[in-house]
Structures are given as structure tokens and as C-alpha cells.
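Issue 218. Parser rejects a valid record. Input:
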Amino acid sequence: MKSVFLATFAVLGLAACHQGPPSPDAPRAEGVCWRAAPAPPNFVAISQNVPDMVSCAMDLDLAYLGEGRSVLGAYQGSYIFVGPDNIQSAAGLNLFRYPVFNKAQRAALDSQLRVVLAARTLTAAGAKKP
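Output the parser choked on:
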């Protein structure tokens, strides 16, 4: 009787933790930084030979700063979420998200990335001369 009760309790506990259908896996290709395309979860490689998740998160943050909207990306099986207040990673779309950068790190990173964006704008403007 006691084992039946424990088994029932365990099954109910697992069922309570389930949050709908499982999320699709993030791309796992080694050293590739991915960005989610508008169609459901399709990913486009945005950079190759990326050494780590932090570097991929910086690439995705550059996209966020250039477009002004949240960006979803992936690196070696982990999702990366870039938004106005934070950059986070998670093993799944609906799982707990861990910060990639703290507020001070993000502010310093964004300051440097804005310089990169300004240089790109100047380069593009120079290329358009008649």
C-alpha cells in the first residue's frame, strides 16, 4: 500500500512539472552561433568558429541593438534570449533562464557594441557615395 501511494505521488509530481509539449531542441553544431528565423523554430547561422556562448550572446546583442527588438538565438544546444533588460540562456524555451551577463557587464558591452554599430553606419554611408 505504501509503495502504491509513493508511486502515485511521484507520477502526480511529474505531471505537475510538465508545461505542455516539449520545446524543440536548439541547434547543436559546434562553434556556430544561430539566430531564430521568423518561421517557427528555424535557425540561421550568423557566425562560425564562435569560441563560446558569451561570444555568441555578444553577436546576438549586436543584432538586438541594431534592430531594437528582442532576439532569440542558440549556441551548441542552448537557447540565448536577448531583450531590453537582460541576456539569458536556457536548455529549453520554457526552462529556467540563467543570466549570461550581469547589468554592469551588459552596460559595458552595449557601450562597445554601439561603437561598432556607428562604424558600420559610417562605412555603409561611405559606400553609397555617387
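Fixed in the parser; the record now loads. The chain has three helices and six strands.
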